[in-house]
Every structure is written in structure tokens, then in C-alpha cells.
Amino acid sequence: MRFDIDQLEEILSTVSRNKMRSVLTAFGVFWGIFMLVVLSGGGLGFMQMMTANFEGFATNSGFIMTSSTELAYKGFQKGRMWNLDSTDPEVVKQFVDGVDVVAPIVFSYGAKAIYGDKSVSCSVKGITTDYGAIEDQNLSCGRTLNAMDVIEGRKVCIIGSRIHESLFPDVPDPCGMAVKVDGVYYRIIGVYSKGSGSMAVGSNTEETVIVPLGLMQDIYNRGNRIDMLTFKAKPGFSVSELEKQITPILKKRHFISPDDRQAVVFFNSEAMFSMVESLFKGISILTWMIGLGTLLAGAIGVSNIMMVTVRERTSEIGIRRAIGAKPLDIMVQILMESVLITIVAGLSGITLGVMVLAALEYGVNMADGTDYSFLIPFGDAVGALLMLTVFGALAGMAPAYRAMSVKPIDAMHDE
314-322 vs 327-368: helix axis angle to the nearest 10? Predict the structure, then answer.
């Protein structure tokens, strides 16, 4: 037995004989693969959008903030507000072996940056050079803060991209120019890249002015108080384990009850990244389950329709058997019809799905100025095509066996 052009023409003629039935038969497969492609590609794009928010952050970092106390302790009333101070980072680094870097931060919100007759609302963040180990400092021009900037309390700053666009729209590199923030003039030494750090510690990096920590404490009368303590774990150490060591130290230093669960607020980026990763794995599995389930339902529909078709063509099959057609020839013809319907419907679904994803990708990237990809990988498309072939063959097995079992004399009798 061999497959040739005449046989293909015969299969196409048979499929097109009842166009409406063929279309309805193929729709289940078309919809299943379309849903699989759109959900899979959309999930990949959404995952890129989410992970881009965390880009540049150390996955093994922790962030500590303060809240009111939950319990009275050593003469202090319940509900007491307390603050971290500049000595806490050194104590944590000294007594917790698994800590690699500790970086304190001070924030100020509702500030205004002014240059000439232009102004823009912003936040101010005071950091040290160690903060670069927690969050990447992606700059479009200039440099980051260095040790001398922090030690000498130099009035220098790094501005966010939106501040740059608002105050210096016609100046590609404003480094060396002076900007006034809350009445104090700073010399610009760097500009953050656009889109860097969609999720930033304490504020949006694009709308933030970065200054040396000690300088900010002096200008804003903070004394030795800090708003947040960030740290990075050494390789082989878990942030969750370090939390159990750091929290008691801070509670003891600031006269907080060991049983107080509210006073020390701990944000674990390691746990957050793990949770996000598990979420996307779950979404991916759910996507494939939905797509495969819909595709399987479509294949069952193809099988049922082919069974009806075989019943209606009993006399035709009997005549072909009577003039010498082998049972295998009949079986192959029915299988090929099933596979053809499945593949054509599947390719149509893949094509439309890719077109929808391309339009979605274009719209998102044009709106946000990003470069996310919503298209499914080529390997997944090939895998889907192979899967369609298998489903088509499986859908045609039962009808093919039924057609192969038709005896010429029974077919003529039915006629």
C-alpha cells in the first residue's frame, strides 16, 4: 500500500462532500489548540512582565522595617513606636554569620525637585554604597555613589528617569548640573535607566532622588534613625533562617518583648521569588490541562463524527471491498481523513492564536515601551503539531477499525 496524489484527492473529496459537518467536526480541535496557544503564550508574556518587576533585586535578600509594639515590655507601653538606628547594621553584621551585606535606608516622600522653571514631585532615598548589592544600579549615564560621597556627605544625587524627562527634556546627559530638592541643591552624578526597578524598595526608582545616607539624615533631622534595614545572605544561607537570628537581636536592643509578633516587619524576597515561581508553574500546568482537555474533547468529537460517516458510507466501503480493496486500505483512508481534519483545524487554531498573541505583544510593548514576548517557543509549536497528529490518529482508530470490519455481503445487504 502506498499513499499518492490520487488518494489525497479522494480524501479531500470525501471531507468536502459535507462541508458543514467537516467544519463543525474541526471546530472542537481548532478551539482547543487556539486556547492552548493563547493561554500558553499569554502566560509566558505575563511571567516576563512580573519577573521584570523584580529584575535587579538579589533573590537572597531581606528587608526589615518597624511597626508599633503589640505587647508591653520592661516599662514600655503597648503600641509604642520605635525606630531602627545607624548602629543596627553593624551589630547584625557582627553577630549573624550568614549575612553578607547590610545596607540601611532612609526615605522622604512628597518632595519636589526643581530646575529653573520646571518642577516635579519625587521621593528622596538615602543609601550607602552597600545598597548596590541589594538592588542593581542601572544607569543611563553617570556613576553610582562611591565611598567618599557617603563618608564626606557630598551633596550629590542620582535622579530617576522620569525626573530627568521632566526637568531636562532636551538634555541627554544632565550629569554635573544642579537640581534643588526640598530647598537643597545637589549636583547630579547619574541618571537611572528608564524602566529600571519597576518594583523598588520604598519608592519607584524612576521618580526617586538618591543621595548619601548620612547627608540625608542631617538635612532631614533624622539623627541616627533609619527607616529600613536591608541585607543579603551569603551563599548557602537561607533568608528565613537569618530572620530567626536577626529578629531576636533587634528586639533585645530596642526593648521589645520576644513574644511580640508585630513590632518587627520582615520582608523575605527569597520566599517571594519562590512563591512567584510556584505560581507560574501552577499557571503553566493549569494552562496545559485546560488546552489538552479542550483538545481531547475536540478529538472525541472528530471520532464520533467519523463513526457516523463510516456508518453512512457502509455501502461505499462494501463496494470498494468487493472490487479488491484490502481492509488495510480502508483503515488507512479513514485514519487519513481523521488526521487531515485534525491537522487542518489545529494549524488554523495555531495560526489565529499566534496572530492574537502578536497583536497583544505589539499593544503591550507600544504602550509601555517594553520588549516582552508573548509568542510561544518554536519547540512548543512543533510539539503541538505532533500532538495534533497523534490526537487525529487516535480519533480515527475506532472508526477505522469499524470500516475495516465491514464485509462486502453485509454492506450490499444494508444497501
Answer: 130
